[in-house]
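WARN no homologs supplied; continuing
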Amino acid sequence: MAHHLLKLELAAAAREAGVYAELEVRGPEGAWRADVLASDPAGAWRMALEAQLSPITADDIGTRTERMQADGVSSVWFSDRYRPPWFGQVPSVRVKAVDGGGLVVVEGLAKFSGGQWEEGPQVPLAEFLRWVFTGRVVLHRRRGPVRSPLQARLSVWTPPQYAQQEAAHLEKEERRKRLEQEEKRRLADEERVRREHWRREARERAAAQGDHAAAIHALRERQTALEKLAFEFIRRETGVQPFVEDGGAAEFAMGVPVYVGMIPYGVICPVASRVAAIRDRLAALVVFVASERERRRIAAHAGPGQRIEVLNGGPAAVPPPRQPTGQPPLPLPAGEDASDPEADRYDRRDRMNP
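OK structure emitted
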Protein backbone atom coordinates (compact mmCIF):
# COMPACT_ATOMS: atom_id res chain seq x y z
CA MET A 1 0.00 0.00 0.00
CA ALA A 2 2.85 2.44 0.88
CA HIS A 3 4.44 1.72 -2.49
CA HIS A 4 1.16 2.28 -4.33
CA LEU A 5 0.50 5.55 -2.48
CA LEU A 6 4.01 6.83 -3.26
CA LYS A 7 3.48 6.08 -6.98
CA LEU A 8 0.24 8.10 -6.91
CA GLU A 9 2.08 11.00 -5.22
CA LEU A 10 4.80 10.89 -7.87
CA ALA A 11 2.31 10.91 -10.73
CA ALA A 12 0.33 13.79 -9.20
CA ALA A 13 3.49 15.84 -8.58
CA ALA A 14 4.70 15.25 -12.15
CA ARG A 15 1.42 16.44 -13.60
CA GLU A 16 1.52 19.46 -11.28
CA ALA A 17 4.96 20.21 -12.67
CA GLY A 18 3.44 20.37 -16.18
CA VAL A 19 4.32 17.04 -17.80
CA TYR A 20 2.53 13.84 -18.75
CA ALA A 21 2.61 11.00 -16.21
CA GLU A 22 1.57 7.34 -16.66
CA LEU A 23 1.59 4.54 -14.11
CA GLU A 24 3.18 1.10 -14.64
CA VAL A 25 4.66 1.60 -18.10
CA ARG A 26 6.64 -1.33 -19.52
CA GLY A 27 9.69 -0.97 -21.67
CA PRO A 28 10.32 -2.73 -25.02
CA GLU A 29 10.04 -6.52 -24.67
CA GLY A 30 9.45 -6.06 -20.94
CA ALA A 31 13.10 -5.19 -20.22
CA TRP A 32 11.96 -2.75 -17.53
CA ARG A 33 8.84 -1.34 -15.99
CA ALA A 34 8.50 2.24 -14.71
CA ASP A 35 6.36 2.96 -11.66
CA VAL A 36 5.58 6.35 -13.19
CA LEU A 37 6.75 7.40 -16.65
CA ALA A 38 6.92 11.19 -16.96
CA SER A 39 7.32 12.66 -20.46
CA ASP A 40 7.63 16.00 -22.12
CA PRO A 41 4.43 17.11 -23.88
CA ALA A 42 6.55 17.75 -26.97
CA GLY A 43 8.04 14.27 -26.75
CA ALA A 44 11.61 15.52 -26.19
CA TRP A 45 12.38 13.29 -23.21
CA ARG A 46 11.06 10.50 -20.94
CA MET A 47 11.89 9.95 -17.29
CA ALA A 48 10.99 7.08 -14.96
CA LEU A 49 9.97 8.09 -11.42
CA GLU A 50 10.62 5.02 -9.27
CA ALA A 51 9.15 4.42 -5.81
CA GLN A 52 11.62 2.17 -3.99
CA LEU A 53 10.61 1.20 -0.47
CA SER A 54 11.64 -2.46 -0.30
CA PRO A 55 15.27 -3.46 0.27
CA ILE A 56 17.47 -3.68 -2.84
CA THR A 57 21.20 -3.78 -3.39
CA ALA A 58 23.13 -1.00 -5.04
CA ASP A 59 24.14 -3.39 -7.86
CA ASP A 60 20.54 -4.41 -8.61
CA ILE A 61 19.20 -0.88 -8.65
CA GLY A 62 22.13 0.17 -10.81
CA THR A 63 21.33 -2.57 -13.31
CA ARG A 64 17.67 -1.53 -13.52
CA THR A 65 18.74 2.09 -14.06
CA GLU A 66 21.08 1.06 -16.91
CA ARG A 67 18.33 -0.95 -18.66
CA MET A 68 16.05 2.07 -18.81
CA GLN A 69 18.90 4.34 -19.84
CA ALA A 70 19.68 2.01 -22.73
CA ASP A 71 16.21 2.79 -24.12
CA GLY A 72 16.67 6.54 -23.69
CA VAL A 73 14.75 6.77 -20.41
CA SER A 74 16.40 8.52 -17.50
CA SER A 75 15.27 7.85 -13.95
CA VAL A 76 14.92 9.25 -10.44
CA TRP A 77 14.53 6.93 -7.47
CA PHE A 78 12.41 8.03 -4.50
CA SER A 79 12.28 6.59 -1.01
CA ASP A 80 11.09 7.64 2.42
CA ARG A 81 13.56 5.26 4.10
CA TYR A 82 16.48 6.79 5.99
CA ARG A 83 19.57 6.59 3.80
CA PRO A 84 19.24 3.25 2.07
CA PRO A 85 22.57 1.75 0.85
CA TRP A 86 21.95 2.68 -2.78
CA PHE A 87 21.19 6.32 -1.99
CA GLY A 88 23.45 8.52 -4.10
CA GLN A 89 24.66 5.54 -6.17
CA VAL A 90 21.82 6.19 -8.65
CA PRO A 91 19.80 9.40 -9.28
CA SER A 92 17.80 9.52 -6.02
CA VAL A 93 16.19 11.68 -3.34
CA ARG A 94 14.51 11.05 0.00
CA VAL A 95 10.99 12.33 0.56
CA LYS A 96 8.97 12.88 3.68
CA ALA A 97 5.28 13.54 4.32
CA VAL A 98 4.49 16.89 5.94
CA ASP A 99 1.58 18.09 7.98
CA GLY A 100 -1.28 19.08 5.75
CA GLY A 101 -0.49 16.42 3.18
CA GLY A 102 1.95 16.19 0.31
CA LEU A 103 5.60 15.14 0.11
CA VAL A 104 8.74 17.21 0.51
CA VAL A 105 12.19 16.36 -0.81
CA VAL A 106 14.29 16.44 2.37
CA GLU A 107 17.54 14.90 1.15
CA GLY A 108 19.29 14.86 -2.22
CA LEU A 109 19.68 18.54 -3.10
CA ALA A 110 23.06 20.17 -2.47
CA LYS A 111 24.93 23.39 -3.15
CA PHE A 112 28.62 24.22 -3.41
CA SER A 113 29.93 26.91 -1.07
CA GLY A 114 33.35 27.76 0.32
CA GLY A 115 35.03 24.86 -1.41
CA GLN A 116 32.61 22.28 0.00
CA TRP A 117 29.25 20.72 -0.71
CA GLU A 118 26.50 21.38 1.80
CA GLU A 119 22.84 20.44 2.08
CA GLY A 120 20.43 22.20 -0.23
CA PRO A 121 16.91 23.36 0.57
CA GLN A 122 13.94 21.13 1.34
CA VAL A 123 11.30 21.71 -1.33
CA PRO A 124 7.89 20.26 -2.23
CA LEU A 125 8.03 17.21 -4.48
CA ALA A 126 6.27 18.99 -7.38
CA GLU A 127 8.75 21.89 -7.17
CA PHE A 128 11.71 19.50 -7.22
CA LEU A 129 10.33 17.71 -10.28
CA ARG A 130 9.74 21.01 -12.04
CA TRP A 131 13.41 21.89 -11.45
CA VAL A 132 14.53 18.51 -12.77
CA PHE A 133 12.28 18.62 -15.85
CA THR A 134 13.41 22.15 -16.77
CA GLY A 135 17.12 21.60 -16.04
CA ARG A 136 17.25 24.00 -13.09
CA VAL A 137 18.87 21.18 -11.15
CA VAL A 138 20.96 18.40 -12.66
CA LEU A 139 22.45 15.19 -11.36
CA HIS A 140 26.12 15.86 -10.61
CA ARG A 141 28.82 13.40 -9.63
CA ARG A 142 30.47 15.10 -6.70
CA ARG A 143 34.26 15.42 -6.50
CA GLY A 144 34.73 18.03 -3.78
CA PRO A 145 34.46 17.40 -0.02
CA VAL A 146 31.19 17.68 1.89
CA ARG A 147 30.26 19.66 4.94
CA SER A 148 28.32 17.93 7.73
CA PRO A 149 25.52 16.93 7.98
CA LEU A 150 25.54 16.22 4.23
CA GLN A 151 26.58 12.65 3.61
CA ALA A 152 29.38 11.95 1.18
CA ARG A 153 27.15 10.61 -1.59
CA LEU A 154 28.60 9.99 -5.01
CA SER A 155 26.00 12.13 -6.78
CA VAL A 156 23.81 15.07 -5.79
CA TRP A 157 21.11 17.19 -7.39
CA THR A 158 22.33 20.73 -7.82
CA PRO A 159 21.97 23.80 -10.07
CA PRO A 160 24.49 23.72 -12.96
CA GLN A 161 26.32 26.82 -11.64
CA TYR A 162 27.32 24.93 -8.50
CA ALA A 163 28.79 22.15 -10.59
CA GLN A 164 30.76 24.79 -12.52
CA GLN A 165 31.92 26.40 -9.28
CA GLU A 166 33.17 23.05 -8.04
CA ALA A 167 35.07 22.52 -11.31
CA ALA A 168 36.66 25.99 -11.08
CA HIS A 169 37.52 25.48 -7.41
CA LEU A 170 39.10 22.08 -8.02
CA GLU A 171 41.07 23.46 -10.95
CA LYS A 172 42.30 26.31 -8.76
CA GLU A 173 43.22 23.89 -5.97
CA GLU A 174 44.98 21.64 -8.43
CA ARG A 175 46.93 24.61 -9.78
CA ARG A 176 47.79 25.72 -6.23
CA LYS A 177 48.99 22.24 -5.30
CA ARG A 178 50.97 22.02 -8.52
CA LEU A 179 52.61 25.38 -7.79
CA GLU A 180 53.33 24.27 -4.23
CA GLN A 181 54.93 21.09 -5.52
CA GLU A 182 56.94 23.05 -8.06
CA GLU A 183 58.02 25.46 -5.31
CA LYS A 184 59.01 22.53 -3.10
CA ARG A 185 60.95 21.01 -5.98
CA ARG A 186 62.59 24.37 -6.66
CA LEU A 187 63.56 24.80 -3.01
CA ALA A 188 64.79 21.21 -2.90
CA ASP A 189 66.85 21.83 -6.05
CA GLU A 190 68.27 25.03 -4.55
CA GLU A 191 69.08 23.19 -1.34
CA ARG A 192 70.71 20.44 -3.37
CA VAL A 193 72.76 23.04 -5.27
CA ARG A 194 73.70 24.75 -2.00
CA ARG A 195 74.78 21.47 -0.47
CA GLU A 196 76.78 20.54 -3.55
CA HIS A 197 78.33 24.02 -3.56
CA TRP A 198 79.16 23.64 0.12
CA ARG A 199 80.67 20.20 -0.46
CA ARG A 200 82.67 21.53 -3.43
CA GLU A 201 83.90 24.47 -1.35
CA ALA A 202 84.79 22.08 1.46
CA ARG A 203 86.76 19.95 -0.99
CA GLU A 204 88.43 23.04 -2.41
CA ARG A 205 89.23 24.32 1.07
CA ALA A 206 90.67 20.97 2.00
CA ALA A 207 92.68 20.93 -1.22
CA ALA A 208 93.75 24.55 -0.66
CA GLN A 209 94.76 23.76 2.89
CA GLY A 210 96.70 20.81 1.59
CA ASP A 211 98.29 22.98 -1.10
CA HIS A 212 98.98 25.71 1.46
CA ALA A 213 100.53 23.24 3.85
CA ALA A 214 102.57 21.78 0.99
CA ALA A 215 103.68 25.30 -0.06
CA ILE A 216 104.69 26.12 3.52
CA HIS A 217 106.59 22.86 3.75
CA ALA A 218 108.34 23.52 0.43
CA LEU A 219 109.17 27.08 1.52
CA ARG A 220 110.61 25.87 4.81
CA GLU A 221 112.68 23.25 2.98
CA ARG A 222 114.09 25.93 0.64
CA GLN A 223 114.82 28.22 3.56
CA THR A 224 116.53 25.44 5.50
CA ALA A 225 118.57 24.43 2.44
CA LEU A 226 119.77 28.04 1.96
CA GLU A 227 120.51 28.92 5.60
CA LYS A 228 124.13 27.73 5.58
CA LEU A 229 124.74 29.11 2.09
CA ALA A 230 123.41 32.53 3.12
CA PHE A 231 125.43 32.31 6.35
CA GLU A 232 128.66 31.69 4.40
CA PHE A 233 127.73 34.28 1.75
CA ILE A 234 127.37 37.07 4.33
CA ARG A 235 130.43 36.00 6.36
CA ARG A 236 132.59 36.16 3.26
CA GLU A 237 131.03 39.40 2.07
CA THR A 238 131.32 41.23 5.40
CA GLY A 239 134.04 39.37 7.18
CA VAL A 240 131.67 39.04 10.10
CA GLN A 241 130.08 35.85 11.35
CA PRO A 242 126.26 36.35 11.03
CA PHE A 243 123.51 34.45 12.77
CA VAL A 244 120.31 33.08 11.28
CA GLU A 245 116.91 33.42 12.94
CA ASP A 246 114.88 30.29 13.57
CA GLY A 247 112.04 30.20 11.00
CA GLY A 248 110.36 32.87 8.92
CA ALA A 249 109.19 36.19 10.37
CA ALA A 250 106.04 38.09 9.36
CA GLU A 251 107.92 41.43 9.30
CA PHE A 252 110.22 39.94 6.64
CA ALA A 253 107.40 38.55 4.45
CA MET A 254 107.78 35.15 6.15
CA GLY A 255 111.40 35.03 5.01
CA VAL A 256 114.18 33.95 7.40
CA PRO A 257 116.22 37.01 8.48
CA VAL A 258 120.02 36.81 8.72
CA TYR A 259 121.68 39.27 11.13
CA VAL A 260 125.14 40.76 11.39
CA GLY A 261 125.37 41.95 14.92
CA MET A 262 121.97 43.40 15.74
CA ILE A 263 121.29 44.55 12.21
CA PRO A 264 119.45 42.46 9.59
CA TYR A 265 121.63 41.93 6.57
CA GLY A 266 119.60 39.57 4.41
CA VAL A 267 116.39 37.59 4.11
CA ILE A 268 116.13 34.01 2.94
CA CYS A 269 113.20 33.16 0.62
CA PRO A 270 110.51 35.68 1.54
CA VAL A 271 107.01 34.97 0.20
CA ALA A 272 106.72 36.83 -3.11
CA SER A 273 103.12 37.94 -2.59
CA ARG A 274 104.08 39.66 0.68
CA VAL A 275 107.16 41.45 -0.61
CA ALA A 276 105.34 44.53 -1.92
CA ALA A 277 104.12 45.42 1.58
CA ILE A 278 107.69 45.57 2.96
CA ARG A 279 109.64 46.65 -0.11
CA ASP A 280 111.10 49.68 1.72
CA ARG A 281 112.37 47.45 4.55
CA LEU A 282 113.87 45.01 2.04
CA ALA A 283 115.57 47.73 -0.03
CA ALA A 284 118.76 47.73 2.10
CA LEU A 285 118.87 43.95 2.52
CA VAL A 286 120.06 41.06 0.38
CA VAL A 287 117.27 38.68 -0.61
CA PHE A 288 118.43 35.09 -0.98
CA VAL A 289 116.45 32.74 -3.21
CA ALA A 290 116.83 29.17 -4.44
CA SER A 291 116.15 29.59 -8.15
CA GLU A 292 115.96 32.02 -11.00
CA ARG A 293 112.21 31.52 -11.15
CA GLU A 294 111.86 32.52 -7.51
CA ARG A 295 114.10 35.54 -8.16
CA ARG A 296 111.80 36.74 -10.94
CA ARG A 297 108.70 36.33 -8.79
CA ILE A 298 110.17 38.36 -5.96
CA ALA A 299 111.63 41.00 -8.29
CA ALA A 300 108.16 41.60 -9.72
CA HIS A 301 107.00 42.75 -6.25
CA ALA A 302 110.17 44.32 -4.90
CA GLY A 303 111.37 47.87 -5.35
CA PRO A 304 113.71 48.95 -8.17
CA GLY A 305 117.30 47.90 -7.64
CA GLN A 306 116.49 45.28 -5.03
CA ARG A 307 119.50 42.99 -4.60
CA ILE A 308 118.44 39.36 -5.04
CA GLU A 309 120.99 36.55 -4.92
CA VAL A 310 120.31 33.07 -6.23
CA LEU A 311 122.02 30.47 -4.02
CA ASN A 312 122.04 27.03 -5.55
CA GLY A 313 125.03 25.49 -3.87
CA GLY A 314 127.33 25.91 -6.88
CA PRO A 315 130.37 28.16 -7.20
CA ALA A 316 128.18 31.14 -8.02
CA ALA A 317 126.47 30.78 -4.67
CA VAL A 318 129.25 32.71 -2.94
CA PRO A 319 130.36 35.61 -5.18
CA PRO A 320 133.18 38.00 -4.39
CA PRO A 321 132.30 40.20 -1.40
CA ARG A 322 130.44 43.42 -2.09
CA GLN A 323 128.50 45.77 0.16
CA PRO A 324 124.63 45.88 -0.16
CA THR A 325 123.24 49.11 -1.58
CA GLY A 326 122.70 51.76 1.08
CA GLN A 327 124.29 49.78 3.95
CA PRO A 328 127.54 51.03 5.55
CA PRO A 329 130.45 48.68 6.13
CA LEU A 330 130.07 46.69 9.32
CA PRO A 331 133.11 46.49 11.62
CA LEU A 332 134.07 43.24 13.19
CA PRO A 333 132.91 42.93 16.78
CA ALA A 334 135.68 43.51 19.30
CA GLY A 335 137.80 40.47 19.89
CA GLU A 336 136.47 38.49 16.93
CA ASP A 337 138.78 37.32 14.21
CA ALA A 338 137.34 36.48 10.79
CA SER A 339 140.07 33.86 10.45
CA ASP A 340 139.08 32.24 13.71
CA PRO A 341 138.05 28.63 13.00
CA GLU A 342 135.10 29.15 15.27
CA ALA A 343 133.71 31.59 12.67
CA ASP A 344 132.93 28.63 10.45
CA ARG A 345 130.62 27.19 13.06
CA TYR A 346 126.95 27.23 11.85
CA ASP A 347 125.04 27.69 15.05
CA ARG A 348 121.86 29.74 15.61
CA ARG A 349 121.82 29.51 19.39
CA ASP A 350 122.34 32.72 21.35
CA ARG A 351 123.84 34.80 18.49
CA MET A 352 122.20 38.04 19.61
CA ASN A 353 125.30 39.03 21.71
CA PRO A 354 128.02 40.07 19.18
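Residues 135 and 354 are 118 Å apart (CA to CA).
OK
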